[in-house]
């Protein structure tokens, strides 16, 4: 299979838009960085895939989209951010927590996430105030919750599928997602055909695992419909943190606050929540940059 990427397609009359993403590699990186349990890997992978799919609508390079899911379940809040360039990062509060599968082979993501809470979408488009949309969770399974978000918050009926397949030794076998949205006044027949195709295709993670190319999965989704591919983009796990960036944050803190953070080696250790990268700063490092 090729590297992670997504494909955007439209039927020939431009009535229905389809975004199909393969995120196997980047979900693998996220699961290793956060040392997740099997179900936590699936939950994290679905949220990060959802963020990448939603972020594909961002217009400018610096725009950022963040999804926050908090269902009051054992996973705790899950946050994923993605930009218009196809980079994403993610965070899960309790990566080691797990719940038993209800059906063999089906991870109980909804149980782990919980459904007593909200899905929030925050779009930072470089304006003074970011856009924030918020809906109550339906099931905590993420795909259903995202479809509900599109319907309630953006008045766009959507078909959403998200899936992550995890091996018994916690490797990510496949991951990906699908978003189908109809333009206002679209022909119902096209949508019905796509729904039928998606049902016949079965789990999105399985379809991605079995296909050698992502456009073969797209072909299954669009079976019987004439369509054009209108865009393709590679996707990556990439955090926005850096040594300099975190140093700048530390430098905004008072000397008193900083003094409490030094360890016995006179170093401050900072761990990025989103990628678990560890940074070390000495008193000297910070004093050099301390703003007057
Ligand atoms: Zn980071």
What does this structure look like?
The chain folds into two domains: 5-237, Hsp33 domain (3-Layer(bab) Sandwich), CATH 3.55.30; 243-289, CBS domain Like. The protein is built from ten helices and 13 strands. It has helices spanning 24-34, 38-55, 109-113, 143-154, 188-201, 204-210, 214-221, 243-251, 255-259, 283-289; strands at residues 5-11, 16-22, 64-70, 78-83, 87-92, 118-124, 131-136, 158-166, 172-182, 227-234, 236-237, 267-271, 278-282. The protein has a six-stranded mixed beta sheet with strand order 7-6-3-4-5-11, with helices on one face. A hairpin with a 4-residue loop joins strand 1 (5-11) and strand 2 (16-22). Helix 1 (24-34) packs across helix 2 (38-55) and helix 8 crosses helix 10 (283-289). The protein is globular. The N and C termini lie far apart (53 Å). Bound molecules: zinc ion.
Give keywords:
single chain; 292 residues; alpha+beta; Hsp33 domain; CBS domain Like; 2 domains; 6-stranded mixed beta sheet; 5-stranded antiparallel beta sheet; 10 helices; 13 strands; 33% helix; binds zinc ion
